[in-house]
Amino acid sequence: MKTKPTYQELENQIAELKKQNEKLINIFNYMTDVVWSISWPDLTHHYFSSALGKLYGRPVQEFMDNPLLFKEVTHPDDQHLTEKAMKQLVEEGEAERECRIIKPDGSIVWVNDRSKMIYDENHQPIRVEGVTRDITERKQAKENLVKEKIFSEKIMETADAIIVGLDKDHIIRIFNHGAEKISKYKKEEVIGKDWFKMFFPKEMLGEMNKVWKNAWGIKTHSYINSILTKSGEEIFISWQTTGMYDSADVSKHLLLSIGENITERKQAEEALIYEKDKAQQYLNIAGTMLLALDTNACVTLINQKGCDIVGDAEADILGLNFFDKYLSKDIVDIVKDLFKKTLTGELEFVKNYENPIINSYGEERIISWNSTLFYDDKQNIIGMLNSGEDITERKQAEEELIKVKEKAEESDHLKSAFLANMSHEIRTPMNAILGFSSLLKKKNISEEKKDKYLEHIEIGGNRLLHLISDIVDVSKMDANQLSLNQEACNVNKLIDNLQEQFKVGVTKCDIITTKGLSDAKSNITTDSTRLSQILSNLIENALKFTKKGDIEFGYTLKEKMLEFYVKDSGIGLNKKDHTIIFDRFTQVDNDYTRSGSGTGLGLAIVKSLTKLLGGEVWVESEKGEGATFYFTIPYTSTEYKTGEASETTSGLDLSKETTILIAEDESSNFMYLEALLEEFQCKILHAKNGKEAIELLENNDAIDLILMDIKMPVMNGLKATMKIRETNKAIPIIALTAYAMADDKQKALDAGCNDYLEKPLSEDKLAEIIGKYIKKGANTRYRS
């Protein structure tokens, strides 16, 4: 039968789902395309990836607040495309549109929308999902192609050369078809007109006259200038000019010029210069080092990224032998040999070849190279072009990832071992509890056997309680809720109590103590409970691994610290394990951890508690020679007053008129409390939740004390207590809870409880608390 997942399993599943969701969102946010989802048909729930803001030039929140904004920002001429796509989406379940959108700054962007309707199990539409892509560049490229086609046709139309003939007064006498095509003038419009005045602006006439005089004195003259067409367009012409003379008639002397329209070439040259400048800019902003070497490995080109990596300026690098300058001595000869053999063809190129360089700052950087040869016009090798990526941080990250992976695998292994150990630690006492409980149901069992079975059940229960206490302490440490209760403590008395406690039932070894101070001087301020817990854990640890011999514990005063120790004659530890023995989930793989039982958390708890008390812990041990655990705490001398012993069960005497209200929803817990109070013959009232407790108190003014469980249905104990305190400030209310975190007690006191008892309850502790608020032999009423 499949069991319901535990709370922790659900938490883990939720955490994993969150992690996957965050991963998907990060992927979507990394994309340049906009990924979106909108509920249908209400349009109230939506998701847009972060690329939306950049594409539309608006905050994403504007679209979250108004999904119809998509339609509003669509170009008016393209509105019908949106409506068409919406109709197609409803009818066919999928749609696509290409349209223009208008950004707030007035710029136009072309987008492509692909959308799909998502349906529920009843084929009812519930949301629309889609992707929006910026296709502006694609559209512009298409338009440019059209322009380039027209431009090419224009070049074909103007391919004929210009032929112009001018007389001595630069009057146009010859004007051919090619000239008509280029200048846009008809022949009849220009013949007999002044060439200079028709085709040049006034500011250029002086310069053209100089050119004119020189042209007549040279047989063939070449020059380039620009002319203005009929429409005022400036075009560049490359001229070849020669004089045509008529010896019989000077008036017929002509200067014949044949011109080639080089406007496009001039523009191309300018574009080439621009592209060259742009290419240099690209080189300089490239994310990788670009490095050209000649056949001697001297630098002929390096971009800005390369200069940044090696730490030198371009002018200082060009002409240097790169290998001699930036490679360490231990690899320079190896790399030179590879370079030489690659140039000669003995070796093929190795992609992503990695080697370190030493920059001018003395830093080692790891570079991943991709290279290619380059040639002159005769196909002779003249060098090598290299693209180098600085992968230093990536290599470091990879090494860190390997370490993290190994650590994670180790942690996973340790947690698995811990869980297996925990399973063993829980099942072992549970087996005894359930087994002997079952045996108690048999008839005709002797009293001696009953007592023995009950003893085993009690031992198993205490073992489980100890296990739970360890786990709770670890949880408190993780939540930073492990607090200290600083109070006066007599260390010598604490040592004596622990010795008496552990002597009971110990037969295999002696327990010896030493004290470093007199009783008067051993009074300090500390958390006696945590100090006792540290020593108890260490003593239990010593007993577990000591088959025979002595166990000794005590303390000495060293400067301003008390140094405690617990020494055993057990199996000991290897030196390499002295540190990891205190790590949580870490167990030493030897007999030290395989002996006896335990959670494997004891020493980790000792380490945390010691640090909390202001000290440190360590171990000295040799394999097979026992171990001595040491820890320190500050020595803060104080006055210690021995208070009167609390009243116990034997001292508690309730009258038959005493009435106690027990608010407890678990019937088994109520029956246990009822059994504990049975011998005192007091009256007991039972409420199954906080609401019933309030009603019983309002209807019965004979109630002397309330035992209030915290976790109950309908109304919990904290709310019930606060409600009671609105009208009754005096009646004692004792909180009962299985919660064990640091602030639980404070929550109960803040709600109005007088005191606090943790489950499981002991008979003596219950009697002590009741006796504190109901005086011995009296029926004291607490009323407001």
Structure in words:
The protein has 784 residues and is of the alpha+beta class. The chain is 43% helix and 23% strand. The chain contains 26 helices and 27 strands. The protein is elongated.
Could you list some keywords that capture this structure?
784 residues, five-stranded antiparallel β-sheet, 26 helices, disordered C terminus
Task: Give a short synopsis of this structure.
The protein contains 26 helices and 27 strands.
Task: Please report the distance between the alpha carbons of the first and last residues.
Answer: 55 Å
Dominant shape: elongated
Rounded radius of gyration (Å): 48 Å
Q: Helix share of residues?
A: 40-55%
Largest sheet: spatial strand order:
2-1-5-4-3
Number-wise, the strands total 27
Class by SSE composition: alpha+beta
Q: Summarize model confidence as the mean pLDDT.
A: 80
Number of helices: 26
Major β-sheet annotation: 5 strands, antiparallel
* Low-confidence parts: 155-159, 589-597, 643-650, 776-784
How large a portion of the residues is in β-strands, by DSSP E?
Answer: 15-25%
Write the layout of secondary structure elements.
Blueprint: H1 7-30, E1 34-39, E2 46-48, H2 51-56, H3 60-65, H4 69-72, H5 79-92, E3 94-102, E4 108-119, E5 125-134, H6 136-157, E6 162-166, E7 172-175, H7 177-183, H8 187-190, H9 195-199, H10 205-217, E8 220-228, E9 234-244, E10 254-261, H11 263-285, E11 289-294, E12 299-302, H12 304-310, H13 314-317, H14 322-326, H15 329-344, E13 353-358, E14 364-375, E15 381-390, H16 392-440, H17 447-478, E16 487-490, H18 491-503, E17 509-514, E18 523-526, H19 528-544, E19 549-558, E20 561-568, H20 591-594, H21 602-612, E21 617-621, E22 627-634, E23 659-663, H22 667-677, E24 683-687, H23 690-699, E25 705-709, H24 717-725, E26 733-737, H25 744-751, E27 755-758, H26 763-773
Helix pairs in contact: 16-17, 18-19, 19-21, 23-24
